UniProtKB/TrEMBL annotation:
InterPro entries: Aldolase_TIM, DUS-like_FMN-bd, tRNA-DUS-like, tRNA_hU_synthase_CS. Its cofactor is FMN. This is DUS-like FMN-binding domain-containing protein. The lineage of its organism: Eukaryota, Viridiplantae, Streptophyta, Embryophyta, Tracheophyta. The keyword tRNA processing applies. Keywords: Flavoprotein, FMN, Oxidoreductase, tRNA processing.
Length: 373
């Protein structure tokens, strides 16, 4: 996906005037200088833009949406891939490191080798960094660490999990429109990448539309809407008609999310909602080739390809095992031999043996050793 650059010319005289208020009262010369600054000072800002219309989108999924899975989804046809939600508190304790061995950019906890977020040039123009936050300046500080390596930054406003709600993040933001406005406008004014957010439905369609309009007024590039309310469970049908209300009310692209399990569902939800683009979560976990217009490939092949990518990009083994268990649980049972073997696996050597990828595993290890010498 090609990224375009938009040139924004902002008059910053008001900032100059504000910073000089304490000095102008004692000097006419200073006053004249401030007056000139007010009329002539300009800030030129280059802002990257991304097309959010007619796209197939991988949803943000905790412990699933790491680099290997994002690349897997893109391989099968995903246009935009969201990373898993990462809390701002965690990011601001990190530093950016270039990993020459893997060819990646890693966001790593300072003083450790713990990788919090990993990306690579291949996904530079489609990966969206999703953040959990409840504070505008903290969000900005975190976003500035990652923004040069991602296509966009998204704020999670839909997660109903207790860890998000208790920190006034995720779905807790839905009842705080002033805080939403503060966070989004702060990011919009200071970042050179698109800013978006993802919400859930509110108690009434009218409430959802009103919040969506307020979000649009902040200047975000797109809005993703999960067609369920906070108390709803995944088994509850997504309310496509309420997503349609939002899409009809906004001029920015709306990304519809909920109950997309087959490739044909992408067009079905588009037709039902009028949304610009479509986002899929569980359907992609169960078989990432859902994004392929040529139809799904066997899930056994998808699993093996995911294992290969996890080995290649040295993904966190716990994350890989979690994703594999999600795949297996949908089609089979974790109590059967494959599921038990994944649970017992401690290393990539174990997983490579389980999925018949020992030769590939040894090849990757040999290549890394060669690069390190």
């Amino acid at each position: 996906m090609a990224m375009d650059v938009q040139i924004l010319e902002e008059n910053v005289a008001s900032r100059v005037e504000s910073s000089a208020v304490g000095q102008v009262s004692t000097s006419e010369e200073n006053s004249s200088s401030v007056s000139k600054s007010r009329h002539s000072t300009k800030l030129i800002r280059l802002v990257r833009i991304m097309d959010y219309r007619n796209k197939l989108v991988l949803a943000p999924m905790v412990r699933v949406g790491t680099l290997p899975f994002r690349l897997l989804a893109a391989q099968y046809g995903a246009d935009i891939t969201y990373g898993e939600e990462i809390i701002d508190h965690k990011i601001i304790k990190c530093e950016r490191r270039v990993n020459d061995v893997l060819g990646t950019t890693d966001i790593v906890e300072k003083g450790t080798d713990n990788v919090v977020f990993r990306t690579c040039p291949e996904e530079r123009n489609r990966v969206v960094f999703q953040m959990g936050t409840s504070d505008a300046m903290r969000a900005l500080k975190a976003a500035e660490i990652v923004c040069k390596d991602v296509a966009a930054v998204d704020i999670n406003m839909g997660c109903p999990k207790s860890f998000s709600i208790s920190g006034c993040m995720g779905a807790a933001l839905l009842s705080k429109p002033e805080l939403i406005h503060d966070i989004l406008t702060t990011l919009r004014r200071n970042l050179d990448v698109p800013v978006t957010c993802k919400i859930r439905l509110l108690k009434s369609p009218q409430d959802t539309v009103e919040l969506a309009r307020q979000i649009e007024s902040t200047g975000v590039s797109a809005l993703a809407v999960h067609g369920r309310k906070v108390p709803d469970r995944p088994r509850d049908p997504a309310k496509w008609n309420e997503i349609a209300d939002v899409a009809a009310a906004l001029s920015i692209p709306v990304i519809a999310n909920g109950d997309v399990f087959e490739y044909e569902d992408f067009q079905r939800i588009r037709d039902a909602t009028g949304a610009s683009s479509v986002m899929v979560a569980r359907g992609a976990i169960w078989n990432a080739s859902i994004f392929s217009s040529e139809g799904k490939i066997p899930w056994e092949d998808v699993k093996r390809e995911y294992v290969r990518k996890s080995i290649l990009w040295d993904n966190d083994i716990k994350s890989t095992k979690h994703t594999l268990k999600e795949m297996i649980a949908h089609y089979s049972s974790l109590g059967l031999p494959e599921g038990l073997a994944v649970i017992k696996s401690d290393t990539y050597a174990d997983l490579a043996k389980l999925y018949g990828e020992e030769e590939y595993y040894e090849y990757v290890l040999a290549s890394r050793r060669k690069q390190m010498t």
